[in-house]
Amino acid sequence: MSDINWNDYSLETQAIRAGHKRTHEDEHSMPIFTTSSYVFKSAEEASLRFTGQKPGNIYSRFTNPTVNAFQERLALMEKGERCLAFASGMAAIMAVGMGLLKTGDHIVCSRSVFGNTVIMFQNYFSKFGIETDFVDLIDTGAWEAAIKPNTRFLFLETPSNPLTEIADISLLADIAHAHNCLLIVDNCFCTPVLQRPFELGADIVIHSATKYIDGQGRCVGGAVIASDEIIEKYIYPYLRTGGATMSPFNAWVFLSGLETLAVRMKAHCDNAFDLALWLEQQPSVAKVHYPGLASHAQHELAKRQQSHFGGIVSFELAGGKEHAWRVIDATQMISITANLGDVKTTITHPATTTHGRLTPEARATAGIKDGLVRLSVGLESITDIKNDLLKGLGA
Ligand SMILES: *Cc1c(COP(=O)(O)O)cnc(C)c1O
Fold first, then answer.
1. For a substitution probing ligand 1, which of 210, 339, 353 has the most ligand atoms within 8 Å of its CB?
2. pLDDT in tens, 97-139
3. How far apart are the CA of 347 and the centre of ligand 1, in A?
4. Interatomic CA distance for residues 99 and 319, integer angstroms
5. Which fold has domain 6-259?
6. Looking at domain 262-393, what is its CATH homologous superfamily?
7. What residues does each domain of the chain span?
8. How many other β-carbons are positioned within 10 Å of the β-carbon of residue 275?
9. What's the chain's Rg over C-alpha atoms?
């Protein structure tokens, strides 16, 4: 098994079989290695491993067989050279910043990235003299205009949350490279099953494994995938020192999450597509945001760039905040929570939760209307999901 070149296999197979190096116990399923340190055969071997002259485990802050298996598997699935796992998605983003940036550097970031990513760049990196300009995700001209001589990277998520806007990754990669910058894509919403940013020219891919990779809302984790050079020079030394390590238990949960990821993503997409079409037919719904709909402004781009349209659907109620809250409160089965990517359907009101700290003007600029409701469509029966929403929609 160790002789297999997993690059020759498809994503579905890599997701199930790659990364596990069977031990002398001949186990069929990946074990959890709960050990903080490892034993060396001699003082010389210890020295060679510590200096990196000989491969092998050293200490579980930066080398653990279960975590390694997860890293290898996710790197293959993303078609990246190397992956490093982190304690959370935010720890992965922090590591990219700490590894790549220095005082005086500049970032261009989409305005519609995960809220804590904005806070990380705006409130924390700024303390060390790193400036960030935020731009409209789909305004290519604004991205290029924001680039300065000291810009180190462009950072985005696509589709955006909660409006599912789609950025043209190839175009932005070309712009980044023409200005000697890196393009970083947070691929949390699509996962490698739906979108492979490296094939479109991205330099670094970020994951919050907490979402679809786990898929059942159990563990928090993250990952950075990049070239050997970027990982070896900038990210690995920071992980080794910074210590925001993924635990072997979480890696084990994420490994089994990856095994069912392709099947789950397809089912999430099918349910979401069905629901989006149905929502468009509801008289009280003013607008549905879903890249699979012909009415979506970047529908053609989504078709080109993604293999399917994802599990996130949002919709606007003509009746504003009151009606949005009524729909949310009338649900009995659907979970009222801001988490996403779970087999359980979740529902949120962005204007008063995830985007509640923004000023009304900033919310308007971001396109977050008071009547907007976001769904992370799960894998329950689509009929039961519709019936749960219908309680408040019709009322
Ligand atoms: C949740 C999320 C993160 C942060 O990940 P954690 O695992 O919660 O730290 C980053 N990016 C996106 C797009 C997310 O949805």
1. 210
2. 999 999 999 999 999 999 899 999 999 999 999 999 999 999 9
3. 17
4. 47
5. Aspartate Aminotransferase; domain 2 (3.40.640)
6. Aspartate Aminotransferase, domain 1 (3.90.1150.10)
7. 6-259, 262-393
8. 22
9. 22
